[in-house]
Design goal:
The protein is α+β, with helices and mostly antiparallel strands and about 110 residues long. It has one domain: GIY-YIG endonuclease, CATH 3.40.1440. Helices cover about 30% and strands about 20% of the residues.
Length: about 110
């Protein structure tokens, strides 16, 4: 199984009026901070578009309807994804990528 990542795209914000472009299907997603390249979110999911849309969404609880909070200021983010045929294939690919990343970091240290 060959996993191919898409290009990095700027994470949409309401202020810029951008749109999220991702498939409605299983795969892996990765979100990072533009300035540092630090990993912000990563996952193997059934629906990539839905998962990316929820990356920065605040949780909805009964308490949150009564307490008004200021908008969360997020860092400048970018995302990419890798579509797969099934969620199981996405999990396997994610585990392999995590293993490669850990091996690289342990060799670099």
């Amino acid at each position: 199984m060959i996993t191919t990542w898409g290009e990095w795209k700027r994470y949409p914000t309401a202020a810029r009026g951008d749109r999220l472009e991702a498939p409605i299907g299983p795969g892996i997603y990765e979100v990072r901070m533009v300035a540092t390249g630090a990993l912000f979110a990563f996952g193997a999911v059934d629906n990539i578009a839905e998962a990316l849309a929820r990356v920065t969404a605040p949780s909805r609880t009964l308490k949150s309807f009564f307490i008004r909070r200021d908008a969360i200021v997020l860092p400048d983010l970018e995302y990419r994804f890798c579509a797969t045929g099934t969620r199981e294939a996405a999990k396997i690919a994610a585990e392999r990528m995590i293993g490669r990343r850990e091996a690289y970091l342990s060799g670099a240290a």
